[in-house]
Amino acid sequence: ASHAYGGRRTARTEVMFSAGGTAYVYLIYGMYHCVNVVTGAEHDPHAVLIRAVEPLTSTDAARMAAYRGITVKKPASLSGGPGKLCRALRIDKSLNGCRLDDPFGPLWLEQGDSPENLDIAAAPRINIPYAEEYAPLPWRFYLRGNPYVSVIDKQAKPLILS
Predict the structure, then answer these.
(1) Using CB atoms within 10 A as the burial measure, which of 46, 85, 139, 145 is most buried?
(2) What angle separates helix 58-68 from helix 82-89, to the nearest 10 degrees?
(3) CATH: 3.10.300.10, 3.40.50.2300, 1.10.3720.10, 3.40.640.10. Which one for 5-158?
(4) 116-130 pLDDT per residue, tens
(5) Where are the domains of the chain?
């Protein structure tokens, strides 16, 4: 389900060939942005789609709801889904290619809790039946019980870190 499957290099996918730690932002259905984190070495196109985010403060949640222009009825409606989270964080194509390891940049990642201390679920990805033998692989990860996750897979297994 990679846009760069088979080494396909286009204007859209060129960012995926950047070094890990780069944002890959693109538009789907002509109306929703999606943000991915490039994870591979330079010239080795790998990226992870970010499907949900959790605001860490009530101020963040209020700002995200204002950006979305909604009254939040349940947490997943705020930022549970790639398009929703991009609207809630004002992520658009202007951020495509930005480095996520620069804390002074417009978009960055910070280290959170150690994965060994988290209850991480592993399940198949969503909406990629065309990925053939890769579609059922457990390459979707989320925090079990997190209210910002939009789709809970009842068959999800705990992620075992070694």
Answers:
(1) 85
(2) 100
(3) 3.10.300.10
(4) 999 999 999 888 878
(5) 5-158
